[in-house]
């Protein structure tokens, strides 16, 4: 598979129930760029991210990666991190990470590498603790660790810093920066400032459809 160089969204519209949440939405991102998604509650940020991840059908339009991958659908190039952490309470912290590596079909990692990813967020010391015992912020950090453990070129992040303290928010920004430096792309919806240089800001408040 060639590394994607560009993400293009063309003429997207999304319907939730009877309401057209947005329409006529087009944007493009190049490798190494991030897009900041803003807008008030209900503007459609989560809807756009879920549509891009393939969890919601588009009323019109399409999202594609270039060069196109004939073998894998768009969704398999994407990490979607939504409001739910997807943490399995009865598995330990490291077993959760191992579960996601298998689930995403990512190359297996040694125990040392898994520990290294966990330590990025200070979770290595609690690697053997059942994830159900973690605090809200620790669960969020564990969810974010899967971005590191299963590399994918496009990150779709919905309020990724929720529950994180100031130090962990800085680590999150550093992780996104590293991803962009390595040629990845990110679309980030956030109400809280992240110390990150975004190539573009898509404000959905100005986009609401009738
Ligand atoms: N399953 C659903 N059925 C009908 N309408 C829905 C559904 N899910 C969301 N909506 C509506 O779609 C609109 C957009 O919601 P969405 O969650 O995308 O907004 P958001 O910009 O992410 O908001 P927030 O900042 O509060 O997270 C809202 O008006 C919401 O009520």
What share of residues are in beta strands? 25-35%
The geometry reads as globular
Number of domains: 1
Q: Compute the separation of the termini in Å.
A: 41 Å
Distinct ligands, ions and cofactors found in the model? adenosine-5'-triphosphate
CATH topology: Rossmann fold
Instruction: Report mean pLDDT, rounded to a whole number.
Output: 93
Strand order of the largest sheet: 5-6-7-3-8
Structural class: alpha/beta
CATH H-tier superfamily: P-loop containing nucleotide triphosphate hydrolases
What is the CATH class designation? Alpha Beta
In total, the number of strands is: 8
CATH architecture: 3-Layer(aba) Sandwich
GO molecular function, one term: ATP hydrolysis activity
Pfam family, one: ABC_tran
Domain ABC transporter: 7-209
Family: Belongs to the ABC transporter superfamily.
How would you sum up this structure, described in words?
- The protein has 210 residues and is of the alpha/beta class.
- The chain is built from five helices and eight strands.
- Helix 2 packs parallel to helix 4 and helix 3 crosses helix 4.
- The longest helix is centred in the C-terminal third of the chain and has 16 residues.
- The structure holds adenosine-5'-triphosphate.
Short descriptors:
about 210 residues; alpha/beta; Rossmann fold; five-stranded parallel beta sheet; 8 strands; binds adenosine-5'-triphosphate; EC 3.6.3.41; transmembrane transporter activity; ABC_transporter-like_CS; ABC_transporter-like_ATP-bd
């Amino acid at each position: 598979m060639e590394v994607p160089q560009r993400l293009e969204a063309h003429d997207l519209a999304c319907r939730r129930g009877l309401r057209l949440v947005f329409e006529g939405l087009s944007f493009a991102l190049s490798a190494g760029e991030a897009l900041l998604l803003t807008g008030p509650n209900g503007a459609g940020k989560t809807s756009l991210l879920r549509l891009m991840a393939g969890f919601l059908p588009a009323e019109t339009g399409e999202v594609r990666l270039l060069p196109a991958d004939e073998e894998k659908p768009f969704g398999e190039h994407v990490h979607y991190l939504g409001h739910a952490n997807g943490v399995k309470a009865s598995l330990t912290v490291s077993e959760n990470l191992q579960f996601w590596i298998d689930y995403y079909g990512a190359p297996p990692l040694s125990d040392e590498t898994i520990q290294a990813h966990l330590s990025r967020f200070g979770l290595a010391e609690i690697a053997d603790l059942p994830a159900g015992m973690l605090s809200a912020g620790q669960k969020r950090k564990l969810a974010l660790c899967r971005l590191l453990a299963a590399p994918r070129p496009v990150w779709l992040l919905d309020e990724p810093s929720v529950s994180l303290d100031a130090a962990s928010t800085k680590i999150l920004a550093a992780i996104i920066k590293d991803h962009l430096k390595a040629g990845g792309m990110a679309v980030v919806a956030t109400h809280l400032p992240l110390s990150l240089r975004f190539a573009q800001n898509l404000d959905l408040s100005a986009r609401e459809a009738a």
